[in-house]
Amino acid sequence: MQRGAVTKSAAPGFTPEDAVLASVGIVKCGAERGLLLSESMCLALEELVRACCVEDEGAPVIMVCGPKNVGKSTFNRYLINLLLNHLPSVEYLECDIGQTEFTPPGCVSLTNVTEPFLGPPFTHQRTPRKMVYYGQTSCEQDSERYFDVVKYVFNSYKKEVPLVINTMGWVKGEGLLLLTDLIRLLSPSHVVQMDVSDWRAMAPLSAEAVRVAPGLYTKGQQQPKSKQVGASGPEGWKAPDGDGDASAPDYKLLYIHPEFPRAGAAGEARVHSSILRDMAILGYLGQLQPAGLSSALPLHSLVPYQVPFNAVALRVIHTDVAPTNIMYAVNASWVGLCQIPDAIRSQTDGPVLLTQTPLCDCLGFGIVRGVDMERKLYHILTPVAPENLRLVNCLLLGNIAVPNCVLVSQQGIEGEIPYVTSEYNYTILGSGKLKKKKHFKRREHTFPCDFT
Fold it and tell me: Would the pTM of this model clear 0.90, i.e. be above it?
């Protein structure tokens, strides 16, 4: 690791310790290929580690903010790995639904981290302590529900160990207003603001500026005309949930100016982001593979669970679907396996449809491999343990798709690939071509969901 500018140099001599690290895939590389830590990043890391190791000041809450492609996720990994050298565990609140660290995309989650994690997200998928399936990779269309979801998950934080909070790269317009709301809601002790040196993406998020700035759902704090400010000052005010002035934030702001090449160039990361999301889903599905096999089994060779229609409620999160078409939407889809507090009551053996999206725990994910209309059964592939599946009584379908390769690259299939066709009548209401990645040149496919 280096501070400041990178200079090319030969790799240091090989030591016995290097051989041990190389045995698990960790090898030394030249400075031009390593992680570049700027001076401001090193200073912020030192201060945060020091704050987390002081036992008499409470557990710090560290919120990392910044635009897209400035290194927030890398900073979080580096910080948490440093803290694990001194602490048994660190809590991690994932608020970036587009680039999640420990779960498939579209989730807000709280994870207790006890072991270092070094690779990209698809290499360390874990079961969070608390998770809600938001169902989209952006909250711009329903930011109010997103705010409620973050609040619901954050309420599970016990304040016994340090908390690191990852935020979205949406920091302009309403995104900045929403970030202001989150700072008030989560009450961080430290805000780490990452941006390029000319601050072209966002204004400095000082505690004083956030205190008076309007949010999307909270009001800035103004000097009261009819209230007497007590000895505790404005910091002592408390506002009822969802209205009035928000409690005044009081935190230390740490600026970080990343210096890696193309820092802040968000446009170049869009395709990369979609690939990482697909890889995270594939990493999660990898838990379906039996241990000890030399090669992976195709998903169509695995036995799915049979779930009666009237055993689970069903809801499409991101759009309105007519009840007569709901099964077309669900078949061959990625679904959140959730637990709602209310018991499922159905007078028939047909599907139970929810009229509103519930705020509920998500216990894992699965693929609806087929729908048996005669026997009134969903066929679902999932790695969720059977003891947790007994708690599932709700299926949530969001705007997260099964990766294309799962459907078009199935081994052992002869003839027509199930759910896939290249010849389709696009005049059918609701039909459409599968989005094709710009960096791939392949034949366009469509997925007509024929019931099995």
Answer: no
